[in-house]
Each structure stands twice: as structure tokens, then as C-alpha cells.
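Now for our target.
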Amino acid sequence: MHPAPTIPLAREIMNSPVSCLGCHEPIEAAIHTLLRRGFSGAPVVDADGKLCGVVSERDCLRVLASAAFHNQPEGTVEAHMTREVLSVEPTAELFRIISIFEDNAVRRVPVVEDGRVVGLITRRDLLRALSHIGEARVAHGREPRDIAAGRSAV
């Protein structure tokens, strides 16, 4: 018999290590990196490795649309990134992370410890974690609200 399911923490569902962009990197190079790797965005870190923003496809679209009329994309990642970044700590529980995604138009949330990016959680990671909880619920006859509350089957 499998152990009873528990609510996963960020550190258990995050992708790590994370490919980050440097804030002083040319935006054109960053766009090429995202395209080459198939990423829809990436965290941006300063010279000390501290999270300072995120570059998303939306940010890149703005840059490239402007560049279509004015030659090559110009500036650094820092000049074009989104500065207000929602992040979680490695001990954040799954349902807290889900609420961040539900309440905000984000595709990824960095996992940060002591200001440094240690992981990244995407919507797909949340779907995978919820699917595992559903499978465990069926295997153990427990309701999701009981799992979230830490109650065992009676």
C-alpha cells in the first residue's frame, strides 16, 4: 500500500536548476536565448544572483514590435523586464502557489531563498502535482479537502 498523500511543497514540484538571464545582458541576446530554449520567459538576476525581475514573451513582443520599425532591438534585459515579480519560498504549499496563479496573470513563479532563485514553478507543474493528488486520493479513498487539512481517511 502506498503512503497517504500529503500536500506538496514548492521545493518538491519546482524545476531546478533554473536558467536565469542577467539584468545587464543585451535584450536581443536574451530573446534569442528564450527562443532557442523554447522558454516563454525567465527570471532575471543581478550580478550577485539576486532576483530582480522576469522577462516574458509579452516583454519580448513589445521589444520586437518596436524594433520592427527602428532596426535591431536595443537595451538591456533590465530596461525591458517586468520588475514586480511574484515569488514563493521553497516551503510554500501547493494550494498557496495555486492561488497566486489564479489571482494573477502569470505563467511562472520563481522559488526564492535568501533572494536567490532556487527553482521555478510553471502552470504545468501545478497541473502535474494536482493530478498526483487526485491519483493518490483514489488510491487512499481520501477527499482533496482532507488531504489539504492533513486528515486521514476514517
